[in-house]
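User: Last request for today: this protein with glycine, please.
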Amino acid sequence: MNILLLGSGGREHALAWKLAQSSLLHGGGTLYAAPGNPGIAAHATLVNLDVTDHAAAIAFCEAQRIGLVVVGPEAPLVDGLADSLRGAGFAVFGPSKLAAQLEGSKGFTKDLCARADIPTAGYQRVTSRDGALAALDAFGIPVVIKADGLAAGKGVTVAMTRAEADEAVDDIFAGRFGSAGAEAVIEEFLEGEEASFFALTDGATIVPLASAQDHKRVGDGDTGPNTGGMGAYSPARVLTPELEGEAMVRIVAPTVKAMADAGMPYSGVLYAGLMLTRDGPKLIEYNARFGDPECQVLMMRLESDLGELLLACAENRLAAIEPPRFSDDPALTVVMAAQGYPGTPQKGGRIDGIPAAEAAGARVFHAGTALGIDGVLTASGGRVLNVTARGRTVAEAQAAAYAAVDAITAPELFCRRDIGWREVERESATPA
Ligand code: AMP
Ligand code: GLY
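Assistant: Here's the final one, the structure of the complex with glycine:
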Protein backbone atom coordinates (compact mmCIF):
# COMPACT_ATOMS: atom_id res chain seq x y z
CA MET A 1 0.00 0.00 0.00
CA ASN A 2 1.00 3.65 -0.23
CA ILE A 3 1.73 5.58 2.97
CA LEU A 4 1.74 9.34 3.57
CA LEU A 5 3.85 10.73 6.41
CA LEU A 6 3.25 14.34 7.47
CA GLY A 7 5.98 16.48 9.01
CA SER A 8 9.52 17.67 8.42
CA GLY A 9 11.63 17.20 11.55
CA GLY A 10 13.96 14.67 13.10
CA ARG A 11 10.99 12.77 14.51
CA GLU A 12 9.60 12.34 11.01
CA HIS A 13 13.01 11.32 9.61
CA ALA A 14 13.15 8.53 12.22
CA LEU A 15 9.56 7.49 11.38
CA ALA A 16 10.32 7.58 7.65
CA TRP A 17 13.41 5.41 8.14
CA LYS A 18 11.37 2.75 9.98
CA LEU A 19 8.31 3.04 7.72
CA ALA A 20 10.52 2.53 4.67
CA GLN A 21 11.35 -0.93 6.09
CA SER A 22 7.68 -1.87 6.57
CA SER A 23 6.11 -4.87 4.86
CA LEU A 24 3.15 -2.58 4.10
CA LEU A 25 5.23 -1.19 1.24
CA HIS A 26 5.93 -4.63 -0.25
CA GLY A 27 4.53 -5.18 -3.71
CA GLY A 28 5.28 -1.73 -5.00
CA GLY A 29 3.95 0.61 -2.30
CA THR A 30 5.31 4.13 -2.08
CA LEU A 31 6.12 6.11 1.02
CA TYR A 32 5.29 9.79 0.52
CA ALA A 33 6.34 12.54 2.93
CA ALA A 34 4.97 16.06 3.07
CA PRO A 35 6.89 18.27 3.21
CA GLY A 36 9.74 16.04 4.45
CA ASN A 37 13.38 17.15 4.50
CA PRO A 38 16.64 16.17 2.75
CA GLY A 39 17.17 13.26 5.15
CA ILE A 40 13.64 11.95 4.66
CA ALA A 41 14.18 12.15 0.89
CA ALA A 42 16.46 9.10 1.18
CA HIS A 43 13.44 7.00 2.26
CA ALA A 44 10.39 8.69 0.76
CA THR A 45 9.05 10.63 -2.18
CA LEU A 46 8.69 14.23 -1.01
CA VAL A 47 5.51 16.08 -1.90
CA ASN A 48 4.35 19.64 -1.41
CA LEU A 49 1.10 19.59 0.46
CA ASP A 50 -0.43 22.34 2.57
CA VAL A 51 -1.78 20.35 5.52
CA THR A 52 -3.94 23.27 6.66
CA ASP A 53 -5.87 22.74 3.41
CA HIS A 54 -7.83 19.62 4.35
CA ALA A 55 -9.50 19.36 0.95
CA ALA A 56 -6.08 19.33 -0.74
CA ALA A 57 -4.86 16.61 1.65
CA ILE A 58 -7.93 14.49 0.90
CA ALA A 59 -7.48 15.02 -2.84
CA PHE A 60 -3.85 13.89 -2.61
CA CYS A 61 -4.79 10.77 -0.64
CA GLU A 62 -7.46 9.91 -3.20
CA ALA A 63 -5.19 10.50 -6.18
CA GLN A 64 -2.33 8.43 -4.71
CA ARG A 65 -4.62 5.78 -3.15
CA ILE A 66 -3.04 6.25 0.30
CA GLY A 67 -3.66 3.31 2.65
CA LEU A 68 -2.27 4.93 5.81
CA VAL A 69 -1.64 8.53 6.82
CA VAL A 70 0.84 9.06 9.68
CA VAL A 71 0.66 12.50 11.28
CA GLY A 72 3.95 13.47 12.96
CA PRO A 73 3.45 16.87 14.62
CA GLU A 74 0.69 18.15 16.90
CA ALA A 75 -0.51 21.22 15.02
CA PRO A 76 -2.43 19.38 12.25
CA LEU A 77 -3.98 17.08 14.88
CA VAL A 78 -5.21 19.96 17.02
CA ASP A 79 -6.46 21.49 13.76
CA GLY A 80 -8.61 18.41 13.04
CA LEU A 81 -6.79 17.01 10.01
CA ALA A 82 -7.23 13.43 11.25
CA ASP A 83 -11.02 13.96 11.43
CA SER A 84 -11.15 15.32 7.89
CA LEU A 85 -9.11 12.43 6.47
CA ARG A 86 -11.03 9.79 8.45
CA GLY A 87 -14.27 11.38 7.32
CA ALA A 88 -13.12 10.80 3.74
CA GLY A 89 -12.47 7.13 4.49
CA PHE A 90 -8.71 7.08 5.07
CA ALA A 91 -6.88 5.19 7.83
CA VAL A 92 -5.07 7.79 9.95
CA PHE A 93 -2.53 7.37 12.71
CA GLY A 94 -3.19 10.28 15.08
CA PRO A 95 -6.01 11.49 17.32
CA SER A 96 -9.10 13.48 16.44
CA LYS A 97 -9.34 17.19 17.14
CA LEU A 98 -11.33 16.56 20.32
CA ALA A 99 -8.94 13.87 21.55
CA ALA A 100 -5.90 16.03 20.73
CA GLN A 101 -7.11 18.46 23.39
CA LEU A 102 -5.05 16.27 25.73
CA GLU A 103 -2.10 18.18 24.27
CA GLY A 104 -3.87 21.25 22.95
CA SER A 105 -5.42 22.43 26.20
CA LYS A 106 -3.64 22.09 29.52
CA GLY A 107 -6.83 23.05 31.37
CA PHE A 108 -8.79 20.30 29.58
CA THR A 109 -6.24 17.70 30.69
CA LYS A 110 -6.13 18.94 34.28
CA ASP A 111 -9.94 18.80 34.52
CA LEU A 112 -9.91 15.26 33.09
CA CYS A 113 -7.28 14.23 35.67
CA ALA A 114 -9.41 15.72 38.44
CA ARG A 115 -12.52 13.83 37.26
CA ALA A 116 -10.71 10.50 36.84
CA ASP A 117 -8.58 10.84 40.00
CA ILE A 118 -5.32 10.73 38.00
CA PRO A 119 -2.25 11.79 40.01
CA THR A 120 -1.02 15.19 38.83
CA ALA A 121 0.00 18.57 40.28
CA GLY A 122 -2.69 20.59 42.08
CA TYR A 123 -3.91 23.38 39.80
CA GLN A 124 -6.23 26.26 39.15
CA ARG A 125 -7.49 27.43 35.73
CA VAL A 126 -7.47 31.20 35.29
CA THR A 127 -8.79 33.46 32.55
CA SER A 128 -7.50 36.88 33.60
CA ARG A 129 -4.40 38.52 35.00
CA ASP A 130 -6.18 39.36 38.25
CA GLY A 131 -7.48 35.82 38.59
CA ALA A 132 -3.98 34.48 38.00
CA LEU A 133 -2.40 36.80 40.57
CA ALA A 134 -5.02 35.76 43.12
CA ALA A 135 -4.28 32.09 42.38
CA LEU A 136 -0.54 32.72 42.84
CA ASP A 137 -1.30 33.93 46.38
CA ALA A 138 -2.81 30.52 47.10
CA PHE A 139 0.18 28.52 45.76
CA GLY A 140 3.63 28.70 47.38
CA ILE A 141 6.92 29.29 45.57
CA PRO A 142 8.16 27.60 43.41
CA VAL A 143 5.06 27.58 41.27
CA VAL A 144 4.39 26.69 37.64
CA ILE A 145 2.51 28.92 35.18
CA LYS A 146 1.31 27.53 31.86
CA ALA A 147 -0.41 29.13 28.88
CA ASP A 148 -3.39 26.89 28.11
CA GLY A 149 -2.87 26.23 24.40
CA LEU A 150 -0.04 25.14 22.08
CA ALA A 151 2.94 27.44 22.52
CA ALA A 152 5.73 25.42 20.88
CA GLY A 153 7.13 24.39 24.26
CA LYS A 154 7.57 28.00 25.35
CA GLY A 155 4.37 28.51 27.32
CA VAL A 156 5.57 27.02 30.62
CA THR A 157 7.40 28.91 33.38
CA VAL A 158 8.70 27.19 36.48
CA ALA A 159 8.95 30.27 38.70
CA MET A 160 11.44 30.16 41.55
CA THR A 161 10.44 33.65 42.79
CA ARG A 162 7.18 35.53 43.01
CA ALA A 163 8.59 38.20 40.69
CA GLU A 164 9.21 35.56 38.00
CA ALA A 165 5.70 34.21 38.52
CA ASP A 166 4.18 37.69 38.17
CA GLU A 167 6.19 38.29 35.02
CA ALA A 168 5.02 35.00 33.49
CA VAL A 169 1.40 35.92 34.22
CA ASP A 170 1.90 39.38 32.71
CA ASP A 171 3.45 37.83 29.58
CA ILE A 172 0.58 35.42 29.06
CA PHE A 173 -2.20 37.96 29.56
CA ALA A 174 -0.37 40.61 27.52
CA GLY A 175 -0.87 38.24 24.59
CA ARG A 176 2.64 36.84 24.15
CA PHE A 177 1.20 33.45 23.14
CA GLY A 178 -1.77 34.80 21.20
CA SER A 179 -4.94 32.78 21.61
CA ALA A 180 -2.91 30.00 23.33
CA GLY A 181 -2.66 32.41 26.28
CA ALA A 182 -6.27 33.52 26.58
CA GLU A 183 -6.36 31.11 29.48
CA ALA A 184 -3.70 29.78 31.83
CA VAL A 185 -3.13 27.12 34.45
CA ILE A 186 -1.36 27.80 37.75
CA GLU A 187 0.16 24.61 39.10
CA GLU A 188 1.77 23.17 42.17
CA PHE A 189 5.52 22.56 41.67
CA LEU A 190 6.36 18.85 41.58
CA GLU A 191 9.72 17.57 42.73
CA GLY A 192 11.42 14.51 41.27
CA GLU A 193 13.06 13.15 38.14
CA GLU A 194 11.22 13.38 34.83
CA ALA A 195 10.63 10.48 32.45
CA SER A 196 8.53 10.10 29.32
CA PHE A 197 6.37 7.09 28.66
CA PHE A 198 4.87 6.22 25.27
CA ALA A 199 1.89 3.98 24.59
CA LEU A 200 -0.20 3.23 21.51
CA THR A 201 -3.95 3.14 21.92
CA ASP A 202 -6.87 2.76 19.55
CA GLY A 203 -9.26 4.08 22.15
CA ALA A 204 -9.88 0.70 23.78
CA THR A 205 -6.67 -1.37 23.83
CA ILE A 206 -3.46 0.13 25.20
CA VAL A 207 -0.09 -1.17 24.04
CA PRO A 208 2.93 0.10 26.01
CA LEU A 209 5.84 1.10 23.79
CA ALA A 210 8.86 2.33 25.75
CA SER A 211 10.23 5.04 28.02
CA ALA A 212 12.75 7.78 27.35
CA GLN A 213 14.33 10.74 29.06
CA ASP A 214 14.64 14.10 27.33
CA HIS A 215 17.05 16.97 28.14
CA LYS A 216 15.03 20.17 27.86
CA ARG A 217 17.56 22.81 28.90
CA VAL A 218 19.95 24.15 26.29
CA GLY A 219 23.14 23.88 28.35
CA ASP A 220 25.25 21.16 29.95
CA GLY A 221 24.22 20.29 33.49
CA ASP A 222 20.60 21.19 32.63
CA THR A 223 21.24 24.94 32.62
CA GLY A 224 19.92 27.78 30.47
CA PRO A 225 16.57 28.23 28.76
CA ASN A 226 14.12 25.46 27.85
CA THR A 227 14.22 24.03 24.34
CA GLY A 228 12.21 21.45 22.40
CA GLY A 229 14.77 18.89 23.63
CA MET A 230 18.56 18.75 23.23
CA GLY A 231 18.91 14.98 23.40
CA ALA A 232 17.32 11.84 24.75
CA TYR A 233 17.93 8.23 25.61
CA SER A 234 15.73 5.16 25.89
CA PRO A 235 14.85 3.25 27.98
CA ALA A 236 14.68 5.52 31.03
CA ARG A 237 15.47 2.88 33.65
CA VAL A 238 14.50 5.33 36.40
CA LEU A 239 10.98 4.39 35.32
CA THR A 240 11.27 0.86 36.72
CA PRO A 241 8.84 -1.86 35.61
CA GLU A 242 6.93 -1.27 38.88
CA LEU A 243 6.66 2.49 38.29
CA GLU A 244 5.73 1.90 34.64
CA GLY A 245 2.98 -0.46 35.79
CA GLU A 246 1.75 2.18 38.22
CA ALA A 247 1.77 4.82 35.48
CA MET A 248 -0.23 2.48 33.21
CA VAL A 249 -2.82 1.64 35.85
CA ARG A 250 -3.19 5.03 37.55
CA ILE A 251 -2.53 7.46 34.68
CA VAL A 252 -2.68 6.10 31.12
CA ALA A 253 -5.52 3.55 31.41
CA PRO A 254 -7.90 5.91 33.29
CA THR A 255 -7.14 8.62 30.71
CA VAL A 256 -8.01 6.38 27.78
CA LYS A 257 -11.18 5.26 29.55
CA ALA A 258 -12.19 8.81 30.49
CA MET A 259 -11.70 9.96 26.90
CA ALA A 260 -13.83 7.07 25.57
CA ASP A 261 -16.50 7.76 28.23
CA ALA A 262 -16.56 11.41 27.19
CA GLY A 263 -17.30 10.37 23.59
CA MET A 264 -13.88 11.40 22.28
CA PRO A 265 -11.89 8.15 22.12
CA TYR A 266 -8.15 8.76 21.84
CA SER A 267 -6.40 6.97 18.97
CA GLY A 268 -2.68 7.29 18.30
CA VAL A 269 0.41 7.51 20.44
CA LEU A 270 -0.07 8.91 23.91
CA TYR A 271 3.08 10.54 25.28
CA ALA A 272 2.90 10.92 29.04
CA GLY A 273 5.41 13.32 30.60
CA LEU A 274 5.80 12.01 34.14
CA MET A 275 7.36 13.35 37.31
CA LEU A 276 8.61 10.51 39.50
CA THR A 277 7.80 11.97 42.89
CA ARG A 278 8.16 10.51 46.37
CA ASP A 279 4.46 9.67 46.12
CA GLY A 280 4.83 7.82 42.82
CA PRO A 281 4.53 8.92 39.18
CA LYS A 282 2.45 12.04 38.53
CA LEU A 283 1.38 13.36 35.15
CA ILE A 284 3.08 16.61 34.08
CA GLU A 285 1.53 16.76 30.65
CA TYR A 286 0.30 14.73 27.70
CA ASN A 287 1.37 15.05 24.11
CA ALA A 288 -0.73 13.67 21.28
CA ARG A 289 2.24 12.57 19.15
CA PHE A 290 5.69 11.06 19.43
CA GLY A 291 8.30 13.17 21.25
CA ASP A 292 11.01 14.91 19.30
CA PRO A 293 13.82 13.79 19.87
CA GLU A 294 12.42 10.89 21.95
CA CYS A 295 10.96 9.26 18.82
CA GLN A 296 14.45 8.97 17.35
CA VAL A 297 15.68 6.76 20.20
CA LEU A 298 12.45 4.74 20.24
CA MET A 299 12.75 4.01 16.52
CA MET A 300 16.44 3.12 16.94
CA ARG A 301 15.35 0.37 19.40
CA LEU A 302 12.14 -0.78 17.68
CA GLU A 303 12.45 -4.23 16.13
CA SER A 304 8.82 -4.67 15.02
CA ASP A 305 7.28 -3.44 11.78
CA LEU A 306 6.31 0.18 12.47
CA GLY A 307 3.87 0.34 9.56
CA GLU A 308 1.94 -2.71 10.81
CA LEU A 309 1.76 -1.22 14.32
CA LEU A 310 0.53 2.20 13.23
CA LEU A 311 -1.99 0.71 10.77
CA ALA A 312 -3.35 -1.63 13.46
CA CYS A 313 -3.75 1.41 15.72
CA ALA A 314 -5.51 3.40 12.99
CA GLU A 315 -7.85 0.45 12.26
CA ASN A 316 -8.71 -0.30 15.92
CA ARG A 317 -6.96 -3.68 15.77
CA LEU A 318 -4.38 -3.27 18.52
CA ALA A 319 -5.98 -6.08 20.57
CA ALA A 320 -5.16 -8.54 17.79
CA ILE A 321 -1.49 -7.80 17.15
CA GLU A 322 1.76 -9.08 18.63
CA PRO A 323 3.17 -6.68 21.22
CA PRO A 324 5.92 -4.47 19.77
CA ARG A 325 9.48 -5.66 20.37
CA PHE A 326 12.29 -3.30 21.37
CA SER A 327 15.99 -4.04 21.58
CA ASP A 328 17.27 -4.25 25.15
CA ASP A 329 20.20 -2.12 24.04
CA PRO A 330 19.71 1.52 24.94
CA ALA A 331 19.76 4.22 22.29
CA LEU A 332 20.87 7.81 22.74
CA THR A 333 20.51 10.85 20.51
CA VAL A 334 22.41 14.14 20.58
CA VAL A 335 20.76 17.21 19.04
CA MET A 336 23.08 19.44 17.04
CA ALA A 337 21.47 22.87 16.98
CA ALA A 338 22.21 26.14 15.19
CA GLN A 339 23.91 28.91 17.20
CA GLY A 340 21.23 31.10 18.71
CA TYR A 341 18.75 28.30 19.41
CA PRO A 342 16.34 28.33 21.28
CA GLY A 343 16.24 32.04 20.38
CA THR A 344 16.70 33.03 16.75
CA PRO A 345 18.86 30.35 15.11
CA GLN A 346 21.59 31.29 12.69
CA LYS A 347 20.67 29.51 9.46
CA GLY A 348 22.84 28.58 6.52
CA GLY A 349 25.82 26.93 8.23
CA ARG A 350 27.42 24.25 6.09
CA ILE A 351 27.29 20.59 7.21
CA ASP A 352 29.78 17.93 6.07
CA GLY A 353 30.76 14.46 7.21
CA ILE A 354 27.42 12.69 7.76
CA PRO A 355 28.54 9.54 5.86
CA ALA A 356 31.64 9.35 8.07
CA ALA A 357 29.46 9.80 11.16
CA GLU A 358 27.23 6.93 10.06
CA ALA A 359 30.09 4.61 9.08
CA ALA A 360 30.28 3.01 12.53
CA GLY A 361 26.52 2.37 12.82
CA ALA A 362 25.21 5.67 14.18
CA ARG A 363 22.26 7.25 12.38
CA VAL A 364 22.05 10.94 11.67
CA PHE A 365 18.44 12.09 11.47
CA HIS A 366 17.83 15.44 9.78
CA ALA A 367 15.75 17.87 11.83
CA GLY A 368 16.33 21.21 10.12
CA THR A 369 18.46 20.94 7.01
CA ALA A 370 18.29 22.21 3.44
CA LEU A 371 20.05 20.89 0.36
CA GLY A 372 21.24 23.48 -2.13
CA ILE A 373 21.29 22.87 -5.90
CA ASP A 374 25.08 22.70 -5.47
CA GLY A 375 24.53 19.60 -3.31
CA VAL A 376 25.68 21.40 -0.18
CA LEU A 377 23.75 20.60 2.99
CA THR A 378 23.09 23.54 5.30
CA ALA A 379 21.31 24.29 8.57
CA SER A 380 17.78 25.62 8.08
CA GLY A 381 16.23 25.42 11.52
CA GLY A 382 16.89 25.59 15.26
CA ARG A 383 17.47 21.90 15.84
CA VAL A 384 19.43 20.68 12.83
CA LEU A 385 20.68 17.08 13.27
CA ASN A 386 19.92 14.23 15.68
CA VAL A 387 22.97 12.01 15.97
CA THR A 388 21.71 8.68 17.28
CA ALA A 389 23.47 5.48 18.34
CA ARG A 390 22.92 2.29 20.28
CA GLY A 391 25.16 0.49 22.75
CA ARG A 392 25.01 -2.25 25.37
CA THR A 393 24.79 0.49 28.01
CA VAL A 394 23.79 4.15 27.92
CA ALA A 395 27.47 4.98 28.42
CA GLU A 396 28.34 2.98 25.28
CA ALA A 397 25.50 4.55 23.28
CA GLN A 398 26.66 7.96 24.50
CA ALA A 399 30.26 7.30 23.43
CA ALA A 400 29.11 6.08 20.00
CA ALA A 401 26.81 9.08 19.50
CA TYR A 402 29.51 11.60 20.43
CA ALA A 403 32.08 9.82 18.23
CA ALA A 404 29.61 10.33 15.36
CA VAL A 405 29.02 13.97 16.38
CA ASP A 406 32.77 14.52 16.24
CA ALA A 407 32.93 13.06 12.72
CA ILE A 408 30.57 15.82 11.51
CA THR A 409 32.05 19.11 10.37
CA ALA A 410 29.55 21.87 11.10
CA PRO A 411 31.26 24.82 12.76
CA GLU A 412 28.03 26.76 13.15
CA LEU A 413 26.26 24.03 15.12
CA PHE A 414 26.53 23.27 18.84
CA CYS A 415 25.38 20.45 21.08
CA ARG A 416 25.28 19.48 24.73
CA ARG A 417 28.16 17.17 25.70
CA ASP A 418 26.37 15.43 28.58
CA ILE A 419 23.26 13.79 27.11
CA GLY A 420 22.38 10.75 29.22
CA TRP A 421 24.36 11.96 32.24
CA ARG A 422 21.87 10.83 34.88
CA GLU A 423 21.81 7.27 33.61
CA VAL A 424 25.56 7.16 32.90
CA GLU A 425 26.13 8.16 36.54
CA ARG A 426 23.75 5.46 37.73
CA GLU A 427 25.43 2.87 35.50
CA SER A 428 28.84 3.68 36.88
CA ALA A 429 27.46 3.43 40.44
CA THR A 430 26.00 -0.03 39.72
CA PRO A 431 28.06 -1.81 37.06
CA ALA A 432 25.97 -4.16 34.90
P1 AMP B 1 5.46 21.01 29.76
O1 AMP B 1 5.52 21.88 28.53
O2 AMP B 1 4.14 20.95 30.42
O3 AMP B 1 6.15 19.68 29.51
O4 AMP B 1 6.44 21.68 30.79
C1 AMP B 1 7.78 21.94 30.46
C2 AMP B 1 8.65 21.53 31.60
O5 AMP B 1 8.31 22.30 32.75
C3 AMP B 1 8.46 20.09 32.05
O6 AMP B 1 9.20 19.20 31.29
C4 AMP B 1 8.96 20.17 33.48
O7 AMP B 1 10.38 20.17 33.51
C5 AMP B 1 8.48 21.52 33.91
N1 AMP B 1 7.21 21.40 34.62
C6 AMP B 1 5.97 21.45 34.09
N2 AMP B 1 5.03 21.30 35.04
C7 AMP B 1 5.69 21.15 36.22
C8 AMP B 1 5.28 20.98 37.58
N3 AMP B 1 3.99 20.96 37.93
N4 AMP B 1 6.25 20.86 38.51
C9 AMP B 1 7.57 20.93 38.18
N5 AMP B 1 8.00 21.11 36.92
C10 AMP B 1 7.09 21.22 35.94
N1 GLY C 1 10.93 16.56 23.42
C1 GLY C 1 9.73 17.05 23.97
C2 GLY C 1 8.56 16.98 23.09
O1 GLY C 1 8.57 16.40 22.03
O2 GLY C 1 7.54 17.53 23.47
